[in-house]
Predict the 3D structure of the following.
Amino acid sequence: MSDLVCVGAVAGAFGVRGEVRLKSFCAIPEDIESYSPLSNEDGTESYPLVLTGSIKNGFAARLGGVETKEQADAIKGLRLFARRDQLPSLPDDEYYHTDLIGLEVFDTGGTVLGRVKSVQNHGATDLLELHGPGIKGTVLLPFTLAAVPTVDLKAGRIIADPPEGLF
């Protein structure tokens, strides 16, 4: 498990005074400000963050060191990370997406089904995107208690009971 967790991304400049458009990936979107300062993916750059307002699909924000529209445009796409110890603890049946990526998935009989490539959500429920040998392309496994009865982060594995015909 990484010490850094992606909590947002810069979507571009907002206005002409160095503010940025910010997408928050937090369950409570405005909580991203409480994790400030945020860093880049490798932790080499630090960005103090202040939300300045709500806008469509996110927030207007000020990032430390970004003073002009050109500087804001230059960091479009920058993913922002918080330290894991800054994030709230989760109940036993909830997981950070970053913790699920890379886990090996087995069926209830112990056969390897694949590995989690990403976690997606298209509105109804989270989906685990699986890839691996024997899978053409990818398979989207519903991340529900019925389809995924066991997640063992310590052992690095997931036990799945996929719906009939998925594999």
Observations:
- Residues 4-86 form a domain with the Elongation Factor Tu (Ef-tu); domain 3 fold (CATH 2.40.30.60).
- The chain has a mean pLDDT of 91.
- The first strand starts at residue 4 and ends at 14.
